[in-house]
Sequence to fold (65 residues):
Amino acid sequence: MKSYRFTVRFAGQRITHDFKATNDDEASKIFINELKAGKGSWIKEITYSPSKMFITYEELSGTSN
Fold:
């Protein structure tokens, strides 16, 4: 398992969520399901344009099991 961090910036919000998955494809699916369930850290952020969406993800090094 690998540890991932997804970050979404959209409509004045920043959503960050860390979790474990076996690969990038599974991580994307898990993130979507957990986002729908309301998981993640939601923070109001006014520095990004509310009309644009930015989605990034990274594999966190040194945290694999």
Observations:
- The mean pLDDT is 90.
- Helices lie at 24-36.
